[in-house]
């Protein structure tokens, strides 16, 4: 949709490789660039795993705070806008002949300059990826806890902290898989699970039928409460569409030649992923809200307590899914840490270096998850600050900066609409999220 190609100041002939032997060895070791033999369906299930997070289970609750009209509009607009910005990122991956932007920050550096691009993209990307990993530590622990409660009603109550530690133990093993392609099996299982528990969530809701005295009015009674809850719900929806932070890294694993660029198979995978996203998000959000109204919990599986065996199974599916999701979001973080250690600090790229750094990272996310098991309350807050820019409008700003479409052309207008919507989202959702945190602070328990 751009009217002008990018400047080719960084042009590298297609077949030339200007890297030294040492640089090539390091790139062959780093998790993002070490394996480039992925198929288009890898892109499909990596994107499903990255996007259809446990956030989908909170969408009926977000609907209750948004209301029917605005809720449906926000869901549809978010789906369309994020698909458009994802298309832009897939297109920009190889816009300079002979060069691939394998990481989000590399594209940022090309668009905004070496230093500024790094300062703009890296902090936001890290907030998203580390934030998601911490949230998934808590989500995995809570789902295991719920499973234990449902299956063994007479058992002694075990603290959530222990379940988070059990969930983390899987990552102390899986985190040592070297790159994206090596976690494709885990990712496929996670993608299947996300579709499964979403189907259970809306299927069990539909089976239950509309509840007596169902109420579709806003939960809050005061105008201020309604407004702040609305803002908070916008942040929850932004969190549900957070897959852009790993899209370039996923595309980096697909082979590419001038005749067959990686954007072809990548886009095919994205389309499949977005169809799955629609099949998960819209039924869960709309049916969940239709059945329970404003009585729905922030996790619809909590509202659905029966049939016990089905809800227990759904919680187990959530655990398997967030195991895969954690790995998808952790891989670019591992890549950043290992790049700094090996390229900037001149550590040798060894197995022991990887073993130590990745274990420290998993332990860190586990510790924060255990300390703040209410971390999910921070979602709207983070949703605005980092999820909105990296997903809704940063790709558009890069597109305008690089391609420079003609003023008031379709491309120019579409990008500015996305930027305005994204900036509004970035401003209002942290406000709602902060109020939610303050209200809930009275009941917070550390190491609960």
From TrEMBL:
Transmembrane portions of the chain: 40-59, 66-87, 160-177, 183-204, 270-292, 312-334, 355-375, 381-402, 414-438
Domain Amino acid transporter transmembrane: 37-432
Its membrane topology: Multi-pass membrane protein
Record's keyword annotation contains Translocase: no
Compartments in which it is found: Cell membrane
Entry GO CC: plasma membrane
Main location (coarse class): membrane
A molecular function GO annotation: amino acid transmembrane transporter activity
Keywords per UniProt: Amino-acid transport, Cell membrane, Membrane, Transmembrane, Transmembrane helix, Transport
InterPro entries reported for this sequence: AA_transpt_TM (IPR013057)
Family: Belongs to the amino acid/polyamine transporter 2 family. Amino acid/auxin permease (AAAP) (TC 2.A.18.2) subfamily.
Full protein name: Amino acid transporter transmembrane domain-containing protein
């Amino acid at each position: 949709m751009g009217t002008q190609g990018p400047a080719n100041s960084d042009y590298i002939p297609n077949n030339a490789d200007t890297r030294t032997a040492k640089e090539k060895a390091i790139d062959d070791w780093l998790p993002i660039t070490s394996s480039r033999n992925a198929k288009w369906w890898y892109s499909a299930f990596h994107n499903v795993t990255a996007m259809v997070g446990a956030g989908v289970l909170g969408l009926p609750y977000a609907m209750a705070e948004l209301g029917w009209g605005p809720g449906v509009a926000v869901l549809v607009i978010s789906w369309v806008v994020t698909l458009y910005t994802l298309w832009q990122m897939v297109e920009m991956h190889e816009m300079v002949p002979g060069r691939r932007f394998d990481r989000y920050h590399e594209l940022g550096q090309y668009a905004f300059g070496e230093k500024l691009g790094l300062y703009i993209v890296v902090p936001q990307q890290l907030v998203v990826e580390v934030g998601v990993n911490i949230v998934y530590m808590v989500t995995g622990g809570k789902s295991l806890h719920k499973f234990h409660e449902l299956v063994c009603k007479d058992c002694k109550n075990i603290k959530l902290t222990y379940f988070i530690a059990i969930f983390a133990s899987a990552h102390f093993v899986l985190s040592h898989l070297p790159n994206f392609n090596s976690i494709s099996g885990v990712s496929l299982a996670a993608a299947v699970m996300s579709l499964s528990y979403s189907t259970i969530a809306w299927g069990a809701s539909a089976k239950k039928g509309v509840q007596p005295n169902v109420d579709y009015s806003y939960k809050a009674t005061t105008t201020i409460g309604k407004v702040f809850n609305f803002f908070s719900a916008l942040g929850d929806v932004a969190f549900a569409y957070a897959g852009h932070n790993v899209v370039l890294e996923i595309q980096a694993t697909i082979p590419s030649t001038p005749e067959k660029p990686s954007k072809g198979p990548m886009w095919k995978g994205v389309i499949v992923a977005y169809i799955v996203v629609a099949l998960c998000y819209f039924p869960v959000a709309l049916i969940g809200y239709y059945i329970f109204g404003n009585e729905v919990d922030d996790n619809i599986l909590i509202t659905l307590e029966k049939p016990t065996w089905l809800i227990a199974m759904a919680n187990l599916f959530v655990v398997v899914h967030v195991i895969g999701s954690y790995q998808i979001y952790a891989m670019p973080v591992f890549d950043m840490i290992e790049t700094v250690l090996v390229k900037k600090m001149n550590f040798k790229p060894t197995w022991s270096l990887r073993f130590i750094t990745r274990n420290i990272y998993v332990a860190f996310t586990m510790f924060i998850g255990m300390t703040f098991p209410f971390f999910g309350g921070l979602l709207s807050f983070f949703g605005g600050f980092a999820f909105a820019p990296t997903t809704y409008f940063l790709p558009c700003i890069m597109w305008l900066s690089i391609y420079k479409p003609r003023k008031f052309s379709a491309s120019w207008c579409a990008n500015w609409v996305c930027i305005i919507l994204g900036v509004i989202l970035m401003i209002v959702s942290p406000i709602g999220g902060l109020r939610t945190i303050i209200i809930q602070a009275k009941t917070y328990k550390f190491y609960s």
